[in-house]
Design goal:
single chain; 296 residues; mainly beta; Immunoglobulin-like; 3 domains; five-stranded antiparallel sheet; binds 2-acetamido-2-deoxy-beta-D-glucopyranose
């Protein structure tokens, strides 16, 4: 057979004599702050004059490079695009395959907890979802600890989550109290972390020794003409009252009413949601469903 046929046959068998561009890690969906390493090579022999150039979307990106690999640190969305390399030697220039990279903003995973109202001692399943097509994540799971300074939470790693988990699920056995959880995802070396998820809560109607919430007047349904007072009691000197409202809103007393001492008084609002007390010492009270209706 002639040289040309042999050439074609070699190509069909996968032995391309062209340049080959590869990336490490070899996925193509990246996030701001991650890094990627490019490598441009040929299958045949090289003389000492070799160098390569890399183009991004057809424009000069790396005009002259003489090392085996090129590492790009701290990707940003502007690095999204099609990459191709050209391998140059004295006598020839060879063109590589194209690799399409996308770089998205650092993701915030979404945590779901199920069930929201476990019966005492039941298991609760946490699910952490990173909302981009992506690979290689491991997952870290945290307990939410109320922060005094603002209305945020700090995070305490849950036992068993120290090294991350491969699965995006985490099961908590024997849930008895109201509690908040968060997650985040990580991958790569050096490790790249997603943002923390928003906190999600599981609620318990049971009054526990450390904290309790009492509502007055004592009913589930209230009318906006009568103020409702929510009192926190228990093993802490400072409490705050929180409310969760569907689909995904988290309020604190000062938005809905007035907090004086450990009592929150709410007047003239129409809402429904779940209320509970929490303290910076990490205590959470029983939770209560309340519906406020307009009075006609
Ligand atoms: C990445 O490389 C590994 C091992 O070389 C391979 O198993 C995997 O399929 C590759 N993934 C992609 C997206 O190319
Ligand atoms: C490159 O070209 C020179 C002269 O033009 C020739 O002597 C040499 O054999 C060529 N090398 C290859 C690898 O083709
Ligand atoms: C985490 O990794 C360290 C070091 O590799 C190991 O000693 C430890 O047992 C691991 N912890 C868990 C919970 O797997
Ligand atoms: C609050 O309402 C949910 C349903 O929306 C219910 O499952 C839960 O038992 C209620 N909790 C209390 C303490 O009444
Ligand atoms: C109250 O809190 C303190 C410190 O957190 C703890 O040592 C103590 O056991 C708690 N008491 C009760 C009744 O929970």
């Amino acid at each position: 057979m002639d040289v040309k046929m042999g050439h074609t046959l070699l190509s069909l068998l996968g032995f391309s004599v062209n340049a080959v561009l590869t990336i490490e890690p070899n996925w193509t969906a990246f996030f701001s702050g991650e890094s990627v390493t490019f490598k441009c090579d040929i299958t045949g022999g090289k003389d000492s004059s070799w160098y390569y150039s890399i183009l991004q979307d057809g424009g000069a990106f790396l005009p002259y490079h003489k090392h085996e690999k090129y590492k790009l640190h701290s990707l940003t969305p502007g690095y999204s695009g099609a990459y191709q390399c050209f391998f140059h030697q004295k006598n020839s220039t060879k063109e590589s395959n194209k690799i399409y990279l996308t770089v998205s903003e650092r993701p915030q995973p979404v945590l779901t907890v199920s069930p929201s109202w476990p019966s005492p001692g039941a298991s609760v399943t946490l699910n952490c979802r990173v909302d981009h097509p992506s690979a290689g994540w491991s997952f870290y799971w945290y307990k939410a600890v109320p922060q005094k300074s603002d209305y945020s939470y700090s995070f305490e790693l849950l036992p068993g989550s120290e090294n991350g988990t491969e699965q995006d699920l985490f099961i908590i056995d024997g849930q008895t109290h109201t509690a908040g959880y968060l997650c985040r995802a990580a991958r790569g070396d050096p490790v790249f972390y997603s943002w923390h998820s928003k906190p999600k809560f599981v609620w318990s109607g049971d009054i526990n020794s450390a904290a309790s919430l009492t509502v007055s007047p004592d009913s589930v349904q209230h009318f906006t003409k009568t103020p409702v007072s929510l009192s926190c009691e228990g093993n802490s000197t400072e409490w705050r009252v929180r409310m969760f409202s569907k689909p995904d809103y988290l309020y604190h007393c000062s938005i809905l009413g007035t907090m004086i001492g450990s009592t929150c008084t709410i007047t003239s609002y129409r809402f429904s949601g779940v209320f509970w007390c929490e303290s910076e010492t990490g205590q959470f009270s029983n939770a209560v469903n309340i519906t406020m209706e307009c009075e006609f």
